[in-house]
Write a structure and sequence with these properties.
Layout lengths: L2 E5 L9 H10 L4 E5 H4 L7 H9 L3 E7 L7 H10 L17 E7 L17 H4 L1 H9 L8 E3 L9 H18 L29
Parallel strand pairs: 1-2, 1-3, 3-4, 4-5
Helix pairs in contact: 1-7
The structure holds flavin mononucleotide.
C-alpha cells in the first residue's frame, strides 16, 4: 500500500515528539513524507500537485500536534483547497474512494483532560469528528487516530521513543499490506501499545 504522510507542524523548532515521529516516518521504505509547512511557507498550496499526489497513494496519514482542539491551520487550508467538489466529493467526486484516512495526532494534555466529565467536556474523538466526517464524505475508510496524550516535555523519554517506534511499525505494516484495517477502525483511538496486535503476519 503506497502511503503518503502529510505532516503539519507550525512550530517545528520546539517539537520533540513530532520531530521523532517524522524521522521515523522518513526511514520507512515506501512512505512518501511531506512537510507541508516546508513545502508551503507562504501557504500557497498547489492544488493540482496535491491532488495528483493523492491519486498516487492508497493511504494518507495526517500527522499533526493538536492545536486549539483542531489541526494546525495549514492542514485546514489544505483540506479547504485540495478536497474539491467533483474531485473528493459530490458529483463525480470519487477520486479518493477507498483510500485510507489516518490521523496521527499528539496532544499536550493528559487523557484525563478529555471526555464528557473532564474540563474540556469532549473526548478527543469528538474533537476530531470533523475529520472523520470529511473522510466519510470522501468515501475514505477512517482508521482510529494514532494518538499520544501528555505529549509535552518528552525530549529523550522512553514514552517518546515508544510512540515513534509504534508509528514506524504501523507505517511499515501499512506499506507491506500487513496492517489490520478492519480492526484498526473499531476503537476510538490507537496507542503505541495497540500496534503489534494489529499486524497481520500472514498477509503481504
Ligand atoms: C498554539 C498551540 C495550541 C495547542 N492546543 C492544544 C489543545 O487544544 N489541546 C492540547 O491538549 N494541547 C494543545 N497544544 C499542545 C500541543 O498539542 C503539543 O505542544 C504538541 O502535541 C507537542 O508535540 P511536539 O513536541 O511535536 O511539538 C497546543 C500547543 C500550541 C503551541
Amino acid at each position: 500500500m503506497k502511503t503518503l504522510v502529510l505532516y503539519a507542524h507550525p512550530r517545528q523548532q520546539h517539537s520533540n515528539v513530532n520531530a521523532a515521529m517524522s524521522k521515523a516516518a522518513q526511514s520507512v521504505d515506501g512512505v512518501s513524507f511531506v512537510d507541508l509547512y516546508a513545502r508551503y511557507p507562504r501557504q500557497n498550496i498547489d492544488i493540482d500537485y496535491e491532488q495528483k499526489q493523492l491519486l498516487e497513494h492508497d493511504a494518507v496519514v495526517f500527522q499533526f500536534p493538536l492545536m486549539w482542539y483542531s489541526t494546525p491551520s495549514l492542514l485546514k487550508e489544505w483540506q479547504d483547497l485540495v478536497l474539491e467538489y467533483s474531485f473528493a466529493y459530490g458529483e463525480g467526486g470519487d477520486s479518493l474512494s477507498g483510500k485510507l484516512w489516518i490521523n496521527a495526532v499528539t496532544v499536550g494534555a493528559p487523557e484525563s483532560a478529555y471526555g464528557s466529565k473532564s474540563h474540556n467536556k469532549y473526548s478527543l474523538a469528538e474533537f476530531l469528528s470533523p475529520l472523520k466526517a470529511t473522510a466519510n464524505l470522501c468515501h475514505m475508510p477512517y482508521l482510529a487516530p494514532y494518538t499520544l496524550f501528555s505529549s509535552l516535555n518528552l525530549a529523550g523519554s522512553e514514552t517518546m521513543k515508544d510512540h515513534a517506534y509504534g508509528y514506524k511499525t504501523m507505517l511499515e505494516a501499512l506499506c507491506a499490506d500487513k496492517f489490520d484495517i478492519k480492526a484498526s477502525q473499531k476503537p476510538d483511538l490507537l496507542f503505541a501499545a495497540d500496534i503489534p496486535a494489529l499486524i497481520n503476519e500472514a498477509s503481504s
